[in-house]
Amino acid sequence: MDYFFYPKSVAIFGSFRKGSIAREILRNVVEGGFEGKIIPVNPKGGEVEVAGRKFKVRERLDEGVDVSIIVIPAKLVPGLIRELKGLTKGAVVISAGFSEVGNVELEKELVEAAKEAGIRIIGPNCAGIFGVHGKFFGSFEVRVRPGGLALISQSGAFGGAALAMGNEEGVGFSAFVSYGNASDLDESDFLRYFADDPNTKVIALYIEGVKDGKKFMEALKYATSKKPVIILKAGKSKSGARAAQSHTGSLAGSYEIYKAVFKQTGAIEVEEMEELFDAAKAFEMYSRAGRRVAVVTNSGGPGVLATDKVERLGLEIAKLSDKTIEELKTFLPPQCSVKNPIDLIADADYDRYRRTIEVVCKDENVDSILVICVPPIFIPSEEIARAVIDAKCDKPIIVNFMAGELVRKGIKILEKEGIKNFPTPERAAKALYWLSSR
């Protein structure tokens, strides 16, 4: 499916008047820096200008392209697909008005037309796709920074919100696909594809329901054998299941069955969007972590909160060796607590953090370190960020810098080095829990 996510040419079918979806997709493709051929198509022809580039709108597609994005009335889509035989490898059908509103026969006609034409379909009733490393933003959703997360979303609106939230959270994406009604390609196909995609480190999946349970389970098993798969399942309650069926026309089924499948295949299930991104951030940095955690903090309260959460999640607060404790005592002020959690007290500076992290990291009883920073106004957060970066440590380090304006500059420094921040001690602890569950 490289032609979808790393295309060299794209055709966009639809109206290009101001405010139209096809025009916004064209704008996204251009502004996103797509380096291949771009062909807008509309039977009326004409010209369209977006982002300082002028395009002649062709009345029909008369040369081959890798992928076609279709935003025309639903009833016209099957006919267009037949016309595209031999001219496109894949089609992303944004158009709604198929099985999700009861037009099952029209969707069947679309699938039959695609089979006859030898064209693979994403959609219909979807928000489009991104191939971020291919600089291809074939959607009307907000563009994202490059990274390692592939987001597969049954819901276009959820996908759009998730992309925006990912930007806020500092998450980098390899790809995004909203697959809507899954008339042809479905979540299982994308799980297998991203499992083998070299730019994808972690896969996140939002699903309401699947149509082929066996296919899904086999694909999920394959994907989790290659990389972490994080799943947010909607439609768990009876009312939610009914809503899911009316939304994308799929059967949500019994949640207990899904839960068992996730457990058997080693997928990581999360409860909400915030958790999805926290898990994704953790796996972008590390492939896994052990269960024994050391907490390093300059504030007692957050250190206690982190300790409580670590233990509630079934992880261990690591018992530091006598050697580690004695070495910490050689340079830490006597007011500091050298038992885990290690409290460096409020005036902890660059040197105190860096040396503590390095000493604790050498302890054989420690698998990972949770570093908390609540900087006083006289110690800039940038200083502590550099201490985390400079510390010589080969074990996973999860950071919680809080809060707000006080730590903004420090967080930026960390992010430049690929270190993601978790805004609360509890969320940082949960990140270590997910890493330990692999």
From TrEMBL:
Molecular-function GO terms, alphabetical: acetate-CoA ligase (ADP-forming) activity; ATP binding
Superkingdom classification of source: Archaea
Protein name: acetate--CoA ligase (ADP-forming)
One Pfam family it belongs to: Succ_CoA_lig
Enzyme Commission code(s) on record: 6.2.1.13
Reaction equations catalysed: acetate + ATP + CoA = acetyl-CoA + ADP + phosphate
Domain CoA-binding stretches: 4-98
Protein keywords: ATP-binding, Ligase, Nucleotide-binding
